Amino acid sequence: MSEAAFEEVSVLSSIYCGEGEFQLIQQSAQDGLLVQINSTVGGERGLDVRLLFHLHPRYPSCPPAVSVSSTGLSRTQCHNIRQKLLDQAAALPPEPMVHQLVEWLQQCVEVTENCRGGEEEEGREREKEEEWTAVLSLDHIRSRSRYTGLLERWTQQLQLSGRLLLGRSILVILQGARPNIKEFCRLLRTVKVDVDSSGKKCKERMMKVLTESPTSSPGGHGLQGFVVTNYESLPELTATFQEINMTDVYQQIRPSLRD
């Protein structure tokens, strides 16, 4: 390790002298120094973070490696802060820079705003992971083998569970990630899935989304794979929804069904 690195660690321990602010975690001639600094970043609207700086044996000739963690931030937000620190370090001259990086981060309002704004991105990520349930209404199915074959293929490709209910009302129940359900709906409207009354291939332009919401009890609704079910009456349809533990969903769509 360079003398400059040891001198910087000594200075850092004096600057960040509050309880739990600074810790020298590792000191090795082979692996270098590992320094932990607990700080608040982002100016007045601060966020508490834990910063780990790995000072290479060749530091400061090369920038430090950085790790960021926080109980108040998501993994993606911590990753974004880490990337900003690495970008800032790469732009600095090859001299001791840890204190300079921490100071920059403490005053960087942009970091705070990005993390606040990053909540929307996190929401989208959670949406991808969260299971949703949707019920679609189809206008008609004339070419049954072609139509049902496409629906089954799409559910497999999009990792969705589905059930096609054939009767007076034609319904498709889908479960899975919301973006995948939206892609399924897009395919329905843009791909020629059926034939019209004259036998020409046509798209499903009359499809309607009757309900779409997060699955109320993940794992509690029993859709698996893709199943085609025929029903002849509303009581049979009601029983089908009861069988798959979706009575609440059925109550939502009941006013839209044909008697």
Q: What is shown here, in short?
A:
This protein is 41% helix and 28% strand. It has 259 residues and is an alpha+beta fold.
Overview features:
259 residues; 11 strands; alpha+beta; 8 helices; 5-stranded mixed sheet; elongated
Description:
With 259 residues, the chain is of the alpha+beta class. It contains 8 helices and 11 strands. The protein has helices at residues 3-15, 75-91, 98-107, 109-129, 144-157, 178-190, 234-243, 247-253, and strands spanning 22-28, 32-41, 47-55, 65-69, 131-138, 161-166, 170-177, 192-195, 201-203, 208-214, 226-230. The protein has a 5-stranded mixed β-sheet with strand order 10-5-7-6-11, sandwiched between helices. The protein has a 4-stranded antiparallel β-sheet with strand order 1-2-3-4. Strands 8-9 form a two-stranded antiparallel ribbon. A hairpin with a 5-residue loop joins β8 (192-195) and β9. It starts with a helix and ends in a 6-residue tail after the last helix. The model has no long low-confidence stretch (mean pLDDT 84).
Largest sheet: number of strands, sense, barrel closure: 5 strands, mixed
Terminal-residue CA separation = 81 Å
Level of helix content?
40-55%
- Number of extended strands: 11
Could you state the order of secondary-structure elements as H and E?
Answer: HEEEEHHHEHEEHEEEEHH
**Average pLDDT number:** 84
Strand order of the largest sheet: 10-5-7-6-11
> Rough shape?
elongated
Rg computed from alpha carbons, rounded to a whole number of angstroms: 29 Å
Strand coverage percent: 25-35%
Query: Helices and strands: which structural class?
Result: alpha+beta
Helix count, per DSSP?
8
Oligomer: single chain
Poorly predicted sequence stretches spanning 5 or more consecutive residues: none
